[in-house]
Amino acid sequence: MIDRRTLLFGAAAAAVSAGTPAMAAETGAANCVWPPPNWQKNGFPSRRWVKILFVHTNERFNNFYTDEGKYIVPAVEQFSRTVRDFRANEWKMLDPRLMDLLFVLHWKYCKDEIRIFSGYRSEATNAHIEGAAKNSQHIQARALDIHLPNMDNDAVALDFRTFVFGGVGMYPGKQFTHMDMGNLRRWVG
Ligand SMILES: [Zn+2]
Q: How many angstroms is it from 180 CA to the middle of ligand 1?
């Protein structure tokens, strides 16, 4: 007979193991297999998580954001608030497919915490950023500027070009790579 304690322990164990592979990956490339064999067997995981640091405020998001393949709205909201327009202190619900992309990046590059340089930007803030496109996807809450720890941004941008289904911006000399859910575009900033 399965008692309540066993069920609770089982749930906790499942949560731990689901979050562990990318974290373990940081400590040894030998743990890293791309694509993960269980994705090949079972398909894209229905329970997904992301772990990020928003560099301007040092705030973090580290949680599951889907359950049984469905987006968990409060988690997507919490993520969106974390990568808000910190200058204007405004936020907008981000396109959650950006989180799916981050989840893939955790695994593809064996990275634990991903650094975010920009998420949503209000029109007023965007207008004051040098080099920002007037109709930037950041204003639509459909873009992220990111950095993968210990990786060259330009090399990452070149790889993104091969599989990111929206826009990819490469910014030589800057600290990040841009990706968005707009039309298929590639550029060097
Ligand atoms: Zn950007």
A: 8
Tokens matching residue 165: 């289904």
**Domains of the chain: total:** 1
Reduce the DSSP state of residue 61 to 3 states and report it.
strand
Domain assignment of residue 43, given as a range? 4-188
Question: Rounded to an integer, what is the distance from CA 49 to the centroid of its chain?
Answer: 9
Write b or e for each residue in 11-24: b if 16 or more Cβ atoms lie within 10 A of its Cβ, otherwise e.
eeeeeeeebebbee
The Å distance, Cα 45 to ligand 1 centre, comes to 27
CA of 30 to the centre of ligand 1 (A): 32
pLDDT for the residue 31: 63
pTM: 0.85
